[in-house]
Amino acid sequence: MNKENASEHWSHQSEKAAGYWQLKFLLFLFRIFPVFILRIIAFPVGFFYFIFSKKTRIESRRFLQRTAQFIEDPALAKKCRGVFAPLRHIISFSLSLIEKIQSWDGRFKFKNVHFQDDDINDLINLLEEGKGAFLVFSHLGNSELLRGVLNLDKTGVSRKISLTAIMDTKVTAHFNKMLKELNPQSGMDIIGADEIGPETAVLLEDRLASGGMAAIAGDRTSAAGGKNIMIPFFETEAPFPAGVFYLVSLMKYPVYFVFGLRRKCLSLIPQYNMHVHKSTVSFECSRKERMERSALLAGSYVSLLETYCKKYPFQWYNFFDFWHKGEAE
Predict the structure, then answer these.
(1) Burial call 127-154: b when 16+ CB within 10 Å, e when fewer
(2) How large is the angle between the packed helices 85-104 and 54-68, nearest 10 degrees?
(3) Which of 162, 269, 263 is nearest to 208 (CA)?
(4) From CA 298, how far away is CA 229, in angstroms rounded?
(5) How far is CA 97 from the centre of its chain?
(6) Whether the Cβ atoms of residue 60 and residue 313 lie closer than 8 Å to each other
(7) pLDDT higher than threshold 70 for residue 222
(8) Is the pLDDT score of 179 beyond 80?
(9) Residue 284: helix, strand or coil by DSSP?
(10) d(CA 148, CA 137)
(11) Helix or strand run (H / E) with residue 261
(12) Of the candidates 223, 229, 252, 250, the residue with the CA atom closest to the CA atom of residue 300
């Protein structure tokens, strides 16, 4: 693969892969077939992409081969090195997409989301007190489930919780259109990442102050050329979005890292473990110190991301050269 292709930004690749007609067709299938049938269909669809999407195969293998070196479970490491490892990876993504849509449509069974003995009770107590929080998620697993159940008021908290999601709306425009068809309210709380400015910060502050939540991905750099921070990820520096963590630090609200991970990546009956970790980094500091502390926040996030990647490598859904700015091939 030449260097030009390797360095192509993830957002351009996503535009190519997520045409509106494809998502529209998926929504059509979603409405006429039971979800169980759609999960079965995900297997041949994944095989189709495995055969015809060379780029996806290459990037999947690149990640799995790298990760295998650090996985302690010999059986899992062997699966990552196998000939058909990218096929397993791609089918896992197909199943994940179905469950994202299912959660927004209110058809994913909340009983299949299993919270762990971590900081989830701390988050629930915070929300019960009427306070706000900032969630930082990733493209490992399916954190969309948590956003979906929050949107549909299934948290168990006695009040309704508003959720503001910060996304790259240019890249996710097709997906957003489909979400509006599933849930007319879904698009109302989405802020475009390219629209972030002083006014947006004030808006976020107001929503958090009123007891709402904000959510943003911490593992996608900006297509607009925003500043990145290089952090060791599987022993090689990789670019992470400095602006995301600085924005979070400006809000001065409790920060939680969220990972929604399928117990078995190819199971037809999905069960998810939802991990919630509260950051210990304090932002009661001077403006000068805040930049340093936002870097600490990013480092703690990446450390958790790597830990879960080692346990669930086939649920990493960044199909591009994640390290391209740290190690050009």
Answers:
(1) beeebbbbbbbbbbbbbbbbbbbbbbee
(2) 100
(3) 162
(4) 8
(5) 12
(6) no
(7) no
(8) no
(9) coil
(10) 13
(11) strand 255-262
(12) 229
